[in-house]
């Protein structure tokens, strides 16, 4: 009887081993992720309180595209829609006159994209020229798109008006309450190779749809 009980116990332990191993692996992964986040916040303090940028590859791309280590190392999150309100006037009060400005947007469908301007926004000044401005895509809804930068082409680089939030050409346009969003990608900024302006593919590239995409967060960085 004792032998039978011992054998039964051994079998139960063996049957449970895959479960123990699975939880052990997950625990180790959790520890590694926690350490990665600590290292991330230490190495990139400008994104320590970001709800959007937590991927080192995204950081590397932004650093490469902006190509200004002084600005990149000193910039801070000056505006967060979740913290400061989904309101274009609030956004302008914080952002206007700051010069170089990085805008990062995340939609409810997990698209991450944004724009950068060397000149910055400034009240109700209308169209603003900036040949060095660009917009970018970091993530689509499935996470399978390679991060990419799109340079300024023609017409307006950015538009500054109190009834609008961030507006990069017609590629990214947020209205008075910073949503819903609108994207007519290709009008002012170069499209990816093989995509034609005016097509559904172009209009949905950045945010998943041409208009009425729902904004989850808008973060704006400057010195």
TrEMBL record:
Domain of life per record: Eukaryota
Domain (TLDc): residue spans on this chain: 52-223
Protein name: TLDc domain-containing protein
């Amino acid at each position: 009887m004792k032998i039978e009980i011992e054998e039964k116990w051994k079998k139960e332990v063996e049957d449970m081993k895959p479960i123990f191993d699975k939880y052990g692996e997950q625990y180790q992964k959790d520890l590694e992720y926690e350490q990665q986040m600590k290292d991330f916040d230490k190495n990139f303090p400008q994104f320590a309180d970001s709800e959007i940028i937590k991927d080192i590859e995204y950081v590397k791309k932004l650093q490469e595209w902006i190509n200004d280590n002084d600005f990149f190392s000193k910039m801070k999150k000056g505006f967060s829609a979740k913290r400061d309100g989904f309101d274009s006037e609030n956004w302008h009060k914080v952002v206007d006159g700051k010069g170089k400005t990085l805008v990062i947007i995340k939609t409810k469908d997990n698209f991450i994209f944004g724009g950068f301007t060397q000149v910055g926004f400034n009240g109700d000044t209308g169209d603003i020229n900036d040949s060095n401005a660009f917009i970018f895509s970091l993530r689509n809804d499935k996470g399978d798109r390679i991060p990419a930068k799109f340079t300024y082409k023609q017409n307006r680089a950015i538009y500054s008006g109190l009834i609008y939030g961030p507006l990069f050409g017609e590629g990214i346009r947020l209205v008075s309450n910073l949503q819903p969003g609108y994207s007519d990608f290709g009008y002012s900024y170069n499209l990816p190779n093989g995509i034609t302006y005016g097509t559904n593919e172009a209009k949905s590239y950045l945010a998943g749809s041409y208009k009425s995409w729902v904004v989850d967060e808008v973060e704006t960085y400057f010195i």
